Amino acid sequence: MAAPLTAWSYSRAADYAQCPLRFKLKHIDKIQEPPSAAMARGRDIHKEAELFVLGKGPLTDSLKKFEDLVTELAAFPGVAAELKAGFTRHWKKTGYFAKDVWLRAVFDIFLPYADDTALVADFKTGKRYASNDEQVELFALAAMCFAPNVKTVETRLWYLDTGEEEIAEFDATQRDALISKWEAKVAPMFNDSVFAPRPNDKCRFCHFSKSRLNLCKFG
Length: 219
Known about the structure:
The protein has a single domain (about 10-205), classed as Lambda Exonuclease, Chain A, CATH 3.90.320. About 35% of the residues lie in helices and about 20% in strands. It is an alpha+beta fold. The protein is globular, with a radius of gyration of 18 Å.
């Protein structure tokens, strides 16, 4: 019998929203999906950005469209890259792999300022998606919980392939409302005992589909 779900992340919530069965097979039954070229490229570019911002690597071609911004970031004392943060069921900080971790978040860039504001930036490869709006909202909430003194969080999405940038701002007065929203959003994921398939336009690409592993009747 598969172990019950105890922790989530934005990517897990997104997988569940797309298809509960795929979510179960991937995250509860732990059936590995083969890595794609796009995923491998994204991981490589994130590592390049981390090394450059921390002064441990060169500015690569992948970062050139945001050269001024990442160079400015690299000069700030206290900037963190690929920062792993864990939170308990009560939205308190804990270890990323701690026994009581309930939510995991990874900040591509986290930079707290002396005026109790903070910057959270995320490097994106590929296309822009509307779902990214929810991702930055959760990142902003996680930043407020990670640094409770922060009054305002600015989020930035940097699309490395196109040079586009999306900026949003969240105020600490929104914290409780955002917590309520996300608790309600992920409750079905934790309470689900059926994990019924949810047919969608991604079925034909799914590793678990009828045409591949045949663990689902769709695709």
